[in-house]
Amino acid sequence: MAIQTSIKINAKTGEIEIAGTEAFVREQLAALKPLILGENSAEKSKATLPKKTSKEPAKTIEKPLEKPKLLTSKKKPVATKAAVSTTTNSFKSHLETYQNNLRAGDMMLIATEFIASKSKSKSAGTREMTNLLKDHNVSINNPSQYVKNALNSGRLAKSGKKNFKLTTKGNEHLQKLRK
Asked: Is the Cβ–Cβ distance between 112 and 156 less than 8 Å?
């Protein structure tokens, strides 16, 4: 008969509870441990199962951890005009012409400027801006709010249904941010 085992992890109520056979719990713990500890590579590590329902003491498992497989969408990434025509190095060099401590809204304006300079329509969409920034490790929460703020302040203007252009006021603001 298989030994029933359970484990409960409470990282300030981000609770994870696994129960089942010892082999199942070990497998699940091994898959989750790199995520919990923030490990990036599959290294040898020890995992202790803290609680068992049988009378045997907890055992220490020593085996290499496998990198967990993450569920991904089967949808292919959308290739936009800007994404096709931009390269990592050119945006990176464009970004380096600006001050270091930029706000999220300023980063959106810089992305708009760059994408618009590469597109035929001389405009950029919120998704294009966000994707370009994500490609350069800049994460912006609620980018549509920053676009809305830039529209309200007059730094961006609508150009079609979902695209935006940098206004004169927006260009002047970006000039102030240059090194």
From this structure: yes
The torsion region of residue 114 among left (phi > 0), alpha (psi -120 to 50) and beta comes to alpha
CA angle in degrees (0–180, nearest 5) for 151-154-158: 45
- Distances from the Cα of 167 to the Cαs of 54, 152, 158, in angstroms? 70, 12, 10
**What's the pLDDT tens digit per position in 111-133?**
999 999 888 889 999 999 999 98
CATH topology for the 81-177 domain: Arc Repressor Mutant, subunit A (1.10.10)
Is the pTM of the predicted complex or chain greater than 0.90? Answer: no
Q: Which of 172, 155, 71, 163 is nearest to 124 (CA)?
A: 163
Contacts of residues 66-74 at CB distance under 8 Å and 24 or more positions apart, as own/partner, are 66/30, 66/31, 66/42, 67/34, 67/41, 67/42, 68/31, 68/32, 68/34, 68/35
Please state, in angstroms and rounded to a whole number, the distance separating the CA atoms of residues 3 and 93.
59
Q: Which residue has the tokens 């290499």?
A: 64
How many helices and strands in the chain, by DSSP H and E?
A: 7, 8
CA Rg value for the chain = 25
User: What are the domain boundaries of the chain?
Assistant: 4-64, 81-177
Tokens of 149: 């703020």
